[in-house]
Amino acid sequence: MIIGVPREIKDNENRVGLSPAGVKILVEDGHRVLLEKDAGKGSGFPDSIYLEQGAEIVPSSKDIFSQAELIVKVKEPLEEEYPLLQEDQLLFTYLHLAAEPQLTEVLLQKKVAAIAYETVQLPDGSLPLLTPMSEIAGRLAPQKGIHYLEKLQGGKGVLLSGVPGVAPARVVIIGGGTVGYNAAHVAVKLQADVTLFDISLPRLRQLDNIFQGRVKCVMSDPLALTEALRRADLVIGAVLVPGAKTPTVLTAKMLQVMEEGTVFVDVSIDQGGCAETSRPTSHSNPVYKVEGVLHYCVTNIPGVVPRTSSQALCNATLPYIKELAAKGLRRAIDENPALAKGLNIYRGEIINEAVAASYR
Fold it and tell me: Which one of 233, 266, 270, 295 is the catalytic residue?
C-alpha cells in the first residue's frame, strides 16, 4: 500500500504522523511511504533520517493526497486541505468530529473512509490511541497552569507549590480519566493542594487508592464543584465522552464565583470543551479572560513537546497502520473490533453513533 504522511499545518503543530522507526517497519513490510518535505522537522526528524529508513520525500501535500491510499496524520484536516481529499481514501488521524461539523460534511461529501484515533476502543473500554496524547496533555496542564498563574501572564501571582509558611495553590481537576489522573499525578508531585472530581464512584475509589490520600477524590455535583471553584487557583477540565461532544460542566454562572486571575486549562476543548465559556485557541494566541478567569483552550496541547508526542503516538498507532496497510480497510475492521470502532465515516455515511448523535 502507498502510505502518505503530510506536514501538519495547524498552528504550531510540530508533531508528525510517523516516526523514522515507524517508516522503517512499514517499508520492510513492503509498503511505500511518502513523506512531505520537512514533515518531521518540527519533531527533530530531518528528511535525511526518513530517507535512510526508506521513505520517499515529496515536495507538497498535494503530492501526498494525490498518490497515497492511506493518509496518516496527527490532527484533523484543515480547510485548505479539504480539496485534496480523495474518494475512498483512508484517513487515519485525530478527527474529533463532534466538534467539527464542517469537516464532517466534507468527509461525507468526499466519501472518505475516516478512522479517528480517539474512537478506536478496546473491549475493556480503553482508548489506546487517545491515551498517549491524553497522558501528555494531562501532564502539561499543571505546567501551563504554573506559567499563567504568574502575575505577568494575568494570573493571581500564586506559586503552585507554595513555600514554607505559605500554603500551596489549590488545584481543581474535573474528570478522573487519563487526562485527570496524569494532571493530578504532576500537580501532587509539585506539592499542590489537589481536589479531583468525577461522576464514577468506583473510579474515585480507585484513584483514592492510587494517591493514598494525597488527592481529595470527590463525587462531582454542581454544589460541591461550585464550592471548590470559589477557592481554586487552577482548574483543569478533563471531561471526556468518547466520540461525543463534551458535556458542559462549568456554566458561566459557576465561573462568576471564581477569583480574579484564576487559571482554567480546558484539555477537553478538542471535543468542544467542558465550560460554557470555552472556545478553541491556538499556541500563537492561547489565552483569553472571561469573568476575570484566564482560559487556556489550546486544541493541540501536546504539539509543544513534539519529539516526545510523535514517538508516543507512533508507538500506539503503528500496529493499526500495519493492519490497515496489509489487509485493507474492510478486512482490517472485520478482524479487529477495536479498529472498527474507530471508523467514523465510510462511503458517505456516519458510522460512529456518538458522532452521528452530535451531527444531527
Answer: 270
